[in-house]
Amino acid sequence: MSLPTLRNRNELGGAILVGLVWAAIVIDWLWVLMLPSIIQYSLLGAIAIASMAWLIRCYFVHGARTPWFWVVFTITFPVFWQFLLYNADQFDFELLRSYVARTGLVMLFLIGLLWNIWGVEQIAQRIEAERRQYQQFDLQEVLQQKQRTTKVDTWNPFDPAAWYYGRKSPRLNQSVSGFVTYCYLFIMVCMILSQVRGCTRYYDLPAGGGEQQTVAQVVKVQTIIRKKFVVNPYSAILFDIPEIDEVKLELNEATAHQYKIGYGEGEGAGFAGGTSKGVVALYRLEYSGGDWDQDFGIGGDMNMLIKYQELTSQKIDKQTRAVTPAQLGTFDTIRCPPLIYITGQGTISLGKNDIKILKDYINNKHGMLFGDNGGSKHFDRQFKSMMQAIAPDVKPVLIPADDKIHRVPFTIPKFPYVAPHGGTQAMGWFKDGRWICYYHPGDIGDAWADGHAGIAPEVWNMCYRLGVNVINYAHAEHAKWRMAQAKKKGDKG
Q1: Mean pLDDT computed over every residue of the chain
Q2: Is residue 281 a contact partner of residue 316, using CB atoms and an 8 Å limit?
Q3: Fewer C-beta neighbours within 10 Å, C or N terminus of the chain?
Q4: 454 found inside a domain
Q5: Residue 265 CB: number of other CB atoms within 10 A?
Q6: 255 forms bridges with which residues in the sheet?
Q7: Phi, psi of 438 (to 5 degrees)
Q8: Per-residue pLDDT tens for 201-255?
Q9: Does the residue 471 lie in any domain?
Q10: Which helix (H) or strand (E) holds 127?
Q11: Nearest CA-CA partner of 129 in 160, 154, 157, 175
Q12: First-to-last CA distance in the chain?
């Protein structure tokens, strides 16, 4: 059965043009990030509707049992798949995005497998039919022809008589070989083209720039004069005698925003190499064995993010997020979260593969860990043991008060904490010229939470500023590294 052809060149040209536009939009969405979201969404939606109309038309014109209908279905399926992924991504349905990505990948594999089986069978039948045309009905000639046929020395994988399929069950061997070859090629293509949103996750920095300097703090003295009437106490008219005029001094501490907080050159506070869609997010590690989610989300981590935006003017995520080590491993090699926050007060249970992913995150993705002891000596031992497994060649040290991470963008004159569960000084793991881990032993997350654990305002205020410093440090270091990687790639190109 031959496949129907497109009715005219205009239809063929239109299909090619639409396909090129769709590919360009998907590339821009995944890599370039130049088109505004509204334009991306409008074009992808229009192409999805056009593809659906084409598929429906083929169904009514040719029927669902014709090969041409399934050709059109195969062509339009990636369009519908990517459009669903785009919607899940734009509306931040993370679980749905992951589900659609994996389901679509499985469907794509099955569609390709069915075409592989059908195509191999069609070609094999045609080759055998052509060979049978030369056979004679004379018994002697048939036997001679059969003998010659079995000795055919061909390398054609579509020919069941190929020598490497053997003489016993050549068609079965051909089918098995085709299946194995297809699976191998499919896996290789997925590895090469693994930049599909949903399979690979991305973290974009907010566009902008800034300086890595200490924010100047100034004290404004405001004089408030309260005017009072002074009357003669010996007057015949009775008055309530008021107090003498008061002069009140108010000391207001204010931040002198003489520069943008961030790194590199760019408009607005942010990071060079960032995108208009990029935001600063706070990811928390989800692990087994402990209360990893204490003070998580609204009323906890989200307070810290809101304070970060207030103090830096950088764009932030709409919510705080949690990732398992496996999910962390799905992030792009370059565009991954610069910082992962780890807290709790129980046991940190991580498998060998989890440790391997965290090692890769720190060493190859230039990530940083932010540990916070949520309430026990046990967690202190657990966290240090975890770091020993992740970075066995690095020894923890006390972080000096004059270190950059305690001075930029805000000066931390005295280390703030809620309770000294693991000590009263910050510890860190330093490698290759940067802090790969900052460990707060005194439950800084409780200071960020609603109610601030009942500690003094000056302490929880300083805890917020320390959080800003650590988050900013991780993002600035990651921005430098991203720019260096882009330069290396440019030099090689």
Answers
A1: 82
A2: yes
A3: C
A4: yes
A5: 9
A6: 217
A7: -120, 125
A8: 889 999 999 988 888 654 454 544 555 545 555 555 544 544 444 444 444 444 4
A9: yes
A10: helix 94-132
A11: 160
A12: 48
Residue with tokens 């990530």: 367
Amino acid making up residue 465:
R
Cα torsion angle, 462, 435, 342, 322, sign: positive
Q: Are residues 325 and 450 in the same domain?
A: yes
Which residue segment(s) compose the domain that 333 sits in?
283-492
**Domain co-membership, 188 together with 288:** no
Q: Are residues 185 and 305 in the same domain?
A: no
Q: Are residues 308 and 416 in the same domain?
A: yes
163 falls in which pLDDT band (50, 70, 90)?
Answer: confident
Per-residue pLDDT at 120 exceeds 90: no
Cis peptide before 242 (omega within 30 of 0): no
* High-pLDDT (> 70) share of the chain, %: 80
- Asked if 461 and 391 touch (Cβ cutoff 8 Å), the reply is no
What pairing do the DSSP bridges indicate for beta strands 434-440 and 427-431?
antiparallel
Same domain, 460 and 327: yes
For residue range 49-77, list pLDDT tens digits in order.
Answer: 988 988 888 888 878 888 878 888 888 89
Last residue of some domain: 192, 226, 261?
A: 192
- Give the pairing of strands 246-256 and 283-285: unpaired
User: Omega of the bond prior to 409 within 30 degrees of 0, cis?
Assistant: yes
Indicate the SS3 state at residue 398: strand
The answer to whether 132 and 143 have CB atoms below 8 angstroms apart is: no
Question: What pLDDT score does 87 carry?
Answer: 86
pLDDT digit string, tens, across residues 75-92: 889 889 989 988 887 776
pLDDT of residue 254: 47
**Domains in the chain: how many in total?**
2
- Backbone φ, ψ for residue 91 (5° rounding): -95, 10
CA angle, residues 222, 223, 229, in degrees to nearest 5: 155
Q: What is the CATH number of the domain that holds 423?
A: 3.40.50.12140
The answer to whether residues 424 and 442 touch, using CB atoms and an 8 Å cutoff, is yes
Q: What is the pLDDT of residues 290-302, one digit of tens each?
A: 789 988 988 999 9
Cβ neighbours of residue 308 closer than 8 Å, sequence gap 6 or more: 280, 314, 316, 467, 468, 471, 472
Residue 265 lies in a domain: no
DSSP class of 288? B
Domain boundary among 192, 216, 242: 192
Closest C-alpha to 68, from 156, 113, 18, 6? 6
User: Do 344 and 459 fall into the same domain?
Assistant: yes
**Distance between CA atoms of residues 278 and 89, nearest Å:** 13
- pTM for this prediction: 0.62
